[in-house]
Amino acid sequence: ALKPYQTGPNVHFVSNIDGTHMATTLKKVNPETTLFIIASKTFTTQETITNATTAKEWFLNVAKDPSTVAKHFVALSTNGPKKNMFEFWDWVGGRYSLWSAIGLSIAVHIGFDNFEKLLSGAHFMDKHFQTADLDKN
Q1: DSSP type of residue 43
Q2: The pTM is what?
Q3: 120 is a domain residue
Q4: Given this model, what pLDDT does residue 96 score?
Q5: d(Cα 67, Cα 64) in Å, to the nearest integer?
Q6: Cβ-based neighbours of 107, under 8 Å, separated by 6 or more
Q7: Is the C or the N end of the chain the one with fewer CB within 10 Å?
Q8: Range of the structural domain that residue 71 is part of
Q9: How many domains does one find in the chain?
């Protein structure tokens, strides 16, 4: 739905621990120009930890320099060290809330101007649902 609005880099999502999906995705990216955005509300979900570990191992195998990891990996979470992390509130609905820091990958992909328009449209609809008569909802 947002493809026509793409102004930023390509974005790839790996949301399960299917090794084929991860391998196929890693073949498409350049480790020198890739930013891994690891989204997890608590960083206790095994699938997320497994995928993050796989991506980091792949990256280190290619990059060879562990000090470069911090330039290519960021976290979106409510839990953990604040370095390289975009925080969001613990009451936000985890990976499903594009309106929080979880929406970073969308913002990067469609550009921050378009993301601001998306947020504005969502705000408009929130206000509509709160104030419009039931027959107008």
Answers
A1: S
A2: 0.84
A3: no
A4: 61
A5: 9
A6: 115
A7: N
A8: 3-111
A9: 1
Cβ of 65: how many Cβ atoms within 10 Å?
8
Assigned domain for 73 exists: yes
Residue 95: predicted pLDDT: 57
11 SS3 class: coil
Q: Residue 12 half-sphere exposure, CB side, CA atoms within 13 Å?
A: 17
pLDDT at 94: 58
pLDDT at 113: 95
CA distance 134 to 98: 26
| Residue at 58 is within a domain | yes
Residue 17 lies in a domain: yes
3-state secondary structure of 3: helix
Amino acid present at 31: P
Token couple for 117:
């328009």
Helices assigned H by DSSP within 1-111: 19-28, 46-63, 69-72, 104-110
| CATH number, domain containing residue 24 | 3.40.50.10490
Residue 52 one-letter amino acid: A
Chain centre to alpha carbon of residue 29: 16
Report mean pLDDT in 10-residue bins for the chain, 137 residues.
88 90 96 94 90 96 91 91 86 77 93 95 93 90
Tokens for 86?
A: 């975009």
